[in-house]
Amino acid sequence: MTPVACFWRTPAALLLRMMTSGDRMTGLGEAFAHYGRIFKTLHLLQFIDSEAYRRMIGVQLNIGEGRHALGRRIFFGRLGELRHGYRDGMEDQLGALGMALNAVVWWNTLYIDAAVKELENSGLTISPEIRSRLSPLVHEHINFHGRYPIVRSHGDGAILHPLRAPHAAEE
Length: 171
Description:
The chain has helices at residues 3-8, 12-19, 27-49, 51-74, 87-121, 128-133, and strands spanning 20-21, 24-25. By secondary structure, the protein is mainly alpha-helical. The protein has a domain at 24-133. The longest helix has 35 residues, at 87-121.
């Protein structure tokens, strides 16, 4: 076995121990730190130099912030606080939040896809640029204060509610 193959099978705790000696970095640890700084510097230089790269980073940050905003809206009942003093309770709360987030994203994805198909069937062309800006993280249309019965779908072809005009009166 080559030294490189052996390196990748080394446990992380052993690697950390090899890079530090007490509170000080070893030569290997300092080498890895300098190596990491090279990539950080290259990233910063590219960020300063390239407007396209800055926009790409901004888009990625906005997606993350959109997910966090949706999570805060779903988790409003306890003011976003984990109230359980034990690990399993906190994990249960976070698991339920993740499941609710996934349900909203799935539901929005189904309806965004249906809306795009309906627009295309009516003769409107949706450009790839517009498609790339659609996000299933929108949540302004969701009433977070209601009751939501869970209705089991029959069959694989789930039938969606008919789409309505954007400014149609609520029933």
